[in-house]
Amino acid sequence: MKVQSVIARRFDRLSVHGLGFSDFVILNLLDNAPAKKMRRVDLAEKIGLTASGVTRLLLPMEKTGYVKRESNQRDGRVSYVVLTDVGRNIYEEAVHTAELIACELLPPLKSKDLKVLSEALYIMGGNL
User: Fold this and answer.
1) How far apart are CA 67 and CA 81, in angstroms?
2) Is 51 within 8 Å of 108 (Cβ atoms)?
3) What CATH number does the domain located at 2-125 have?
4) Any idea what the Cα angle at residue 122 is, between residues 2 and 81, rounded to 5°?
5) Phi/psi at 38 (nearest 5 deg)?
6) 81: closest CA among 108, 113, 57?
7) Which of 11, 16, 76, 126 is close enough to 21 for a disulfide, judged by CB 3.0 to 4.6 Å?
8) How far apart are CA 103 and CA 91, in angstroms?
9) How confident is the model at residue 78, as a pLDDT?
10) Which residue ranges make up each domain of the chain?
11) Are 84 and 30 within 8 A, CB to CB?
12) pTM of the predicted structure, to 2 decimals
């Protein structure tokens, strides 16, 4: 919990871009997804929330125009979260700040140390 708290506090600097840490994580996942969109349930699973939890996070992001909803034409039960051009632009601005913060959090690691850290994180949570 303390590690999560420290990381979240450091990433509060993303607020200069109008983003919280969770917002940034969502934009990052969408930016790296095929066609810049994901099913809501897949997005929820990736960030470790319930579908309703991710919906609550997405509502303000939809209002600001960072993401939009898209229905699946074949299956009305499935909805997608789509990264908009506005969201992509904000993400591109914020990613530089996030990279600086990440470099501050993790000093340069030797290849061996990075492998150990990666393996430990995998054991704790699967393919993070």
Assistant:
1) 6
2) no
3) 1.10.10.10
4) 85
5) -145, 150
6) 57
7) 11
8) 18
9) 80
10) 2-125
11) no
12) 0.81
User: Can you read off the two tokens belonging to residue 56?
Assistant: 């609550």
Q: What is the pLDDT of residue 127?
A: 56
Q: Which two tokens stand for residue 8?
A: 């979240």
Rg (CA), the chain: 16
CA atoms of 38 and 29, how far apart (whole Å)? 8
What is the rounded CA–CA span in Å between residue 102 and residue 54? Answer: 24
Q: What φ, ψ does residue 89 adopt, rounded to 5°? A: -65, -45
Residue 60 identity (one-letter amino acid)? P
Determine phi and psi for 47, rounding to 5 degrees. Answer: -100, 0
Indicate the length of the chain as a whole number: 128
Q: What is the pLDDT along the chain (128 residues), one digit of tens a residue?
A: 787 788 888 898 899 999 998 899 999 999 999 999 999 999 999 988 888 899 999 999 999 999 999 987 787 778 899 999 999 999 999 999 999 998 888 777 777 887 887 888 778 876 55
Contacts of 19 (CB under 8 A, 6+ apart): 27, 90, 94
DSSP letter for each residue of 18-77 = T--HHHHHHHHHHHTSGGGEEEHHHHHHHHT--HHHHHHHHHHHHHTTSEEEEE-SS-TT
